[in-house]
C-alpha cells in the first residue's frame, strides 16, 4: 500500500475515557473497529486488508490495566500489555503458564504494545490455550452492563467478540498446598514471531499419582483453541498400564481439531500434539514414582 492510499484512508478515531462512553459513540456498529494496542490491526493493514473508516481506541479507558487479587480470583485488566503479564509477580505465583505463554508471543516490541485482551479477541492468540487450561472467566461490557462467562463460551460465541468489549480476565486462585503442574509448548517455524504450528498448554493437579484435575488444551496458528476432554477423561480414569499408551495416543490424535497448510499437514500437527502430551505424562508420572 503506497503513502497516497494510506493518507486518503485515514480513519476517524474516537478515544473514550470510560466504558459508559462507548454506547454514546455507537462503538458496536458494524463499521466501527475497536482497538487496544493496535498490533494485530497493523499486521492486517500491512498485508493489504482495508483500513477501517472508524476506529474506537480503548487505550484511555480507566481501570483496565491492573493485575490484582479480588474476592472472585486473580483479575487481569484487558488492557494490560503482554509484557506486563510476562513480568507480573502475581501471575508468576498463581498463573505461571500464562507468563510462559506471553513470553512466546511475537517480539518484545509487539508485547510492549499488544494487550492480553487483544490477544484473546483475535481468537487465535497463544495466550488462549494457557487461559483455557486455567479455566479462566471473561468479564465484558455489553453496552449497558457487565457480564462474566467462561472463556470457552466466549470463544464459542463469535457475536460476543464482535459486538462487546472485553474488560477483565478472571483466574481462580488455587491453594498453595496443592501439587499443581503447568506446561506450555509452542511449536513453530521460529520461536516467537511467526504463527505457531500448534501450541499445547497443560495444567494439572496431582493427589499422589492420581490426577485430581487435568486440563489439556491446544491452540496457536489458525486453530480454534479447545480442550481435549475425552483424552483428559481417559488419562484420569483408564491410563494404568503401558498397553494403554497406544490407545491414548490414538485418542489424542483423533480428538485434535486441526488443519493442513503450506507449512505442515494436519497429520503432522496431530502427531506432534500426541507426542508432546505423552512426553509430559511420562516425565511427570515418573517423578511421582
From TrEMBL:
GO molecular function: FAD binding; oxidoreductase activity
Flavoprotein found in the keyword field: yes
Domain FAD-binding PCMH-type: 6-176
InterPro entries tied to this protein: CO_DH_flav_C (IPR005107), CO_DH_flav_C_dom_sf (IPR036683), Diverse_Substr_Oxidored (IPR051312), FAD-bd_PCMH (IPR016166), FAD-bd_PCMH-like_sf (IPR036318), FAD-bd_PCMH_sub2 (IPR016169), Mopterin_DH_FAD-bd (IPR002346)
Transmembrane segments: none
Keywords: FAD, Flavoprotein, Oxidoreductase
Name of the protein in question: Carbon-monoxide dehydrogenase medium subunit
Organism expressing this protein natively: Litchfieldia salsa
Amino acid at each position: 500500500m503506497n503513502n497516497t492510499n494510506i493518507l486518503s484512508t485515514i480513519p476517524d478515531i474516537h478515544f473514550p475515557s470510560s466504558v459508559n462512553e462507548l454506547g454514546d459513540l455507537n462503538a458496536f456498529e458494524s463499521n466501527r473497529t475497536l482497538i487496544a494496542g493496535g498490533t494485530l490491526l497493523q499486521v492486517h493493514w500491512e498485508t493489504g486488508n482495508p483500513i477501517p473508516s472508524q476506529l474506537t481506541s480503548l487505550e484511555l479507558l480507566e481501570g483496565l490495566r491492573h493485575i490484582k487479587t479480588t474476592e472472585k480470583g486473580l483479575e487481569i485488566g484487558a488492557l494490560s500489555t503482554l509484557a506486563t503479564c510476562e513480568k507480573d509477580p502475581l501471575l508468576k505465583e498463581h498463573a505461571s503458564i500464562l507468563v510462559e505463554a506471553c513470553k512466546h508471543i511475537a517480539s518484545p516490541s509487539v508485547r510492549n504494545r499488544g494487550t492480553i485482551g487483544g490477544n484473546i479477541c483475535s481468537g487465535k492468540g497463544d495466550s488462549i490455550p494457557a487461559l483455557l487450561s486455567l479455566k479462566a472467566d471473561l468479564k465484558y461490557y455489553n453496552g449497558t452492563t457487565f457480564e462474566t462467562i467462561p472463556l470457552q463460551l466466549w470463544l464459542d460465541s463469535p457475536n460476543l467478540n464482535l459486538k462487546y468489549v472485553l474488560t477483565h480476565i478472571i483466574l481462580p486462585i488455587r491453594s498453595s498446598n496443592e501439587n499443581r503442574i503447568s506446561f506450555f509448548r509452542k511449536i513453530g517455524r521460529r520461536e516467537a514471531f511467526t504463527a505457531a504450528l500448534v501450541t499445547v498448554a497443560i495444567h494439572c493437579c496431582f493427589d499422589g499419582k492420581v490426577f485430581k484435575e487435568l486440563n489439556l488444551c491446544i491452540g496457536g496458528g489458525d486453530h480454534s483453541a479447545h480442550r481435549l476432554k475425552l483424552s483428559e477423561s481417559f488419562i484420569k480414569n483408564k491410563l494404568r498400564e503401558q498397553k494403554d499408551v497406544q490407545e491414548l495416543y490414538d485418542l489424542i490424535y483423533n480428538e485434535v481439531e486441526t488443519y493442513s497448510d503450506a507449512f505442515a499437514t494436519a497429520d503432522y500437527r496431530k502427531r506432534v500434539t500426541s507426542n508432546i502430551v505423552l512426553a509430559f505424562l511420562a516425565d511427570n508420572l515418573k517423578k511421582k514414582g
